[in-house]
Design goal:
This protein has about 450 residues and is α+β, with helices and mostly antiparallel strands. The protein has 15 helices and 18 strands. The structure holds flavin-adenine dinucleotide. Flavin-adenine dinucleotide (FAD) binds next to strand 3, helix 5 and strand 10.
């Protein structure tokens, strides 16, 4: 890095918050995906004013800046594809305000989901969109990817909870779109423009989030199905029964095999395992909802139905679901975690399409899904040392994405486009939409310094 720019960055954040050490640059070249590219330097910002000064400098010298939370992105969203500076927000990690009366919290972007959850527990409140990475992922990263989680079907995703933001634009301007109230119809919805923008439009430095009263009662159950269609029909029946489960997850036959092979879980071989949870404010309410789930399971020939009301009893029922990523990663070191989402009525068609891809290309694709909201995570496994396998898996990925779009779905329900899905953007977004997205990017970041090379936008 040019010594004058290095000095200017150190003047802004202090020498202790600047690094160009090789070990750090290698670390910052990765996220949780298979992509990587090394930056020239990384800085930890501690204040909004520092973020603004860093961006003014980067804008003047046309240096790429990639904002970063915990680096758990699954589609290369945080990889500094064109080098430049990684702007690490993890030190801006204070919860600034909890207002139960106003039903909101104000946080800095580096606050980890789990820390906010702990802070809200004594008040009997919670912030619902909980990604499986909640122990490490930051709320800034959650906002920038519009993160979801297991409770998406009932509670929605990050987008549904962000009331206001403080954002620093590429030229250093500080904006405060949105307001900390439950309703607002004032002007264009600039808050939503930044949610899910993957750090390409601005750097989020403060977040105001809506919170909910924490449910007081929970019930959990699991069931195995010999027939995928039967599992799909059970889900359809649950969704039409007048209740919304707080979680409804599916693990397919190859997930069950992986769990048995990697962890000796000794699960019954089956076409699918469903895990369902109902929650509410009274035991009666929760039991009523669970009775609808159990009814649907029985109608569709589920076997080994197990149910638990107390959290300690529910823990073993969640074991397979919680362990699946580790089990697949243990057996297959190279995985592309897909994130296609289709209308709930098309989930079985999507699962059957994935089975057909497995057979046609002879690849192992275990599928975990938030079936209650149509969001599936096929794990595309391959041997990264074999160029032919790498090419093959890219072909499988392209067919999978095209199928999701044909079924009326989207490329990504919660992980974002990043690098991985950039080549498929035009499958989902027509020329008019792409023109508008490119125009917005040019308007807010004319020098294209913010996380460039992502989302299939013009270079
Ligand atoms: C095991 C595992 C399980 C996962 N489960 C889920 C899940 O259930 N649901 C889900 O949605 N995701 C999941 N993810 C993906 C990932 O955790 C989410 O995308 C998460 O929101 C990323 O947060 P992060 O702090 O790691 O952000 P990073 O990965 O560091 O960044 C993600 C994106 O946000 C941008 N960004 C970060 N901070 C800011 C900021 N302050 N301002 C502007 N842009 C910013 C980055 O530039 C990048 O584009 C999982 C990942 C793993 C590894």
């Amino acid at each position: 890095m040019n010594p004058d720019i290095k000095q200017a960055l150190q003047d802004i954040v202090g020498a202790q918050n600047f690094t160009d050490a090789l070990v750090d640059l290698v670390t910052y070249s990765y996220d949780a995906s298979e992509y990587h590219h090394r930056p020239e330097a990384a800085v930890w910002a501690e204040t909004t004013q520092q973020v603004s000064a860093i961006l003014q400098l980067a804008c003047a010298y046309k240096i790429p800046v990639t904002p970063r939370g915990a680096g758990t992105g699954l589609s290369g969203v945080t990889v500094p594809l064109l080098g430049g500076i990684v702007l690490d927000l993890s030190k801006m990690n204070r919860i600034l305000r909890i207002s139960i009366e106003d039903r909101l919290v104000v946080v800095q972007p580096g606050v980890v989901y789990a820390a906010l959850d702990e802070a809200l527990k004594p008040y009997g409140f919670f912030y619902p969109p909980d990604p499986a990475s909640s122990r490490v992922a930051t709320l800034g990263g959650n906002v920038a990817t519009n993160a979801g989680g297991m409770k998406g079907a009932k509670y929605g995703t990050t987008r549904d909870y962000v009331l206001a933001l403080e954002v620093v634009l590429a030229d250093g301007t500080i904006l405060r779109p949105g307001v900390g109230v439950m309703k607002c119809s004032s002007g264009y919805d600039l808050v939503r423009l930044f949610v899910g923008s993957e750090g390409t439009l601005g750097v989020v430095t403060e977040i105001t989030l809506k919170i909910n009263p924490r449910p007081r009662a929970v019930s959990t159950c699991t069931a195995f199905f010999d027939d995928l269609k039967g599992a799909g029909q059970a889900v359809a029946e649950i969704m039409q029964s007048g209740i919304i489960p707080s979680a409804l997850e599916i693990l397919d036959d190859q997930c069950i095999l992986c769990l048995n092979q990697a962890l000796n879980l000794n699960l019954t071989p089956a076409a699918a395992l469903l895990v369902a949870e109902t929650d509410g404010y009274t035991r009666e309410e929760v039991d009523y909802q669970m009775s609808k789930v159990l009814e649907a399971f029985r109608h569709h020939q589920a076997k080994e139905i197990r149910q638990a009301d107390a959290p300690e009893q529910a823990e073993p029922l969640w074991a397979a679901r919680r362990a699946i990523y580790g089990a697949v990663a243990h057996l297959y070191p190279h995985i592309i975690v897909e994130d296609v989402t289709v209308p709930i009525s098309q989930v079985v068609a999507m699962l059957e399409g994935i089975q057909a891809l497995r057979e046609r290309y002879q690849v192992v694709i275990p599928v975990l899904g938030h079936i209650g909201d149509g969001n599936l995570h096929p794990y595309l496994t391959y041997d990264g040392a074999d160029p032919a396998q790498k090419e093959l898996i890219k072909k499988v990925e392209a067919e999978l994405s095209a199928l999701a779009i044909r079924l009326g779905g989207t490329l990504t329900g919660e992980h974002g486009i990043g690098i991985g899905k950039a080549r498929f953007m035009e499958l989902e977004h027509d020329a008019g939409e792409m023109r508008l997205m490119n125009g917005l990017k040019r308007l807010l970041d004319p020098e294209n310094i913010l996380n460039p090379g992502k989302m299939g936008l013009e270079a």
